[in-house]
Amino acid sequence: MMAAIARRIVAGVLILAWGLGLPGAARAADGLVHAANFQADARTAAKRRVPILVVFTTPHCPYCERVKHDYLIPMHKDPAYRNRVIIREVTIGASDPLTGFDGASTTEGAFAAAHKVFMVPTIQVFDGQGNNVGDAIVGLLNPDYYFGYLEGAIDAGVNKVRGK
C-alpha cells in the first residue's frame, strides 16, 4: 500500500517536472488565447450571453505578465468564468492580423490604437458589437484590489449583455 502511494507521488513529481521543462510554445495552452477573430468571438459571446474582456499587453512588460498570471489565466482556466466572460489578449504595436468586431481585417496594433490603448496593461470589456461596456482598467493599480476591479468590469459587462 505504501509502495503504491510512493509510486504515485514520484510519478506526479516527474510529470510536474516534465511540464515545467516544456518550451514556451508548448506551455502556451496554459496561457490566454490571443485575439484573432473578434467577429467569431462575438458570435460565441452572444450564444453564452457574456462579454469579451480584452487585455492589451506588450512583450517584456512585467506588469502585463503579473496581471495575466496572477489574475487572468486563473480566471480563464476556471470553469465558473466560462459562463461569465470570454478573455482575449491583444499585443499593442503588433502587426499580427486580426478580424475586428465588424468583420474588417486589421492588425492587433491598429485595433489597440483605434481603442486609444497606449499604456499597458489595459483591460477593456466589450459587448458583442464591440462597444465598451465600462471604463478601462489601465495599469496594475493596487494589486490588493485588482481582482475586485476585474470582477466589477466583468459584472458590468454581464449586466449590459444580459440587459440587467
Overview in brief:
The chain is 49% helix and 16% strand.
Give a verbal description of the structure:
This protein is α/β, with parallel strands linked by helices and 164 residues long. It is 49% helix and 16% strand. The protein has 7 helices and 7 strands, in the order ααβαβααβββαββα. The strands form 2 sheets. A 5-stranded mixed β-sheet has the order 1-3-2-6-7, sandwiched between helices. It has a two-stranded antiparallel sheet with strand order 4-5. A hairpin with a 5-residue loop joins strand 4 (97-99) and strand 5 (105-107). The chain starts with a helix and ends with a helix. Mean pLDDT is 86; it is low at 9-29.
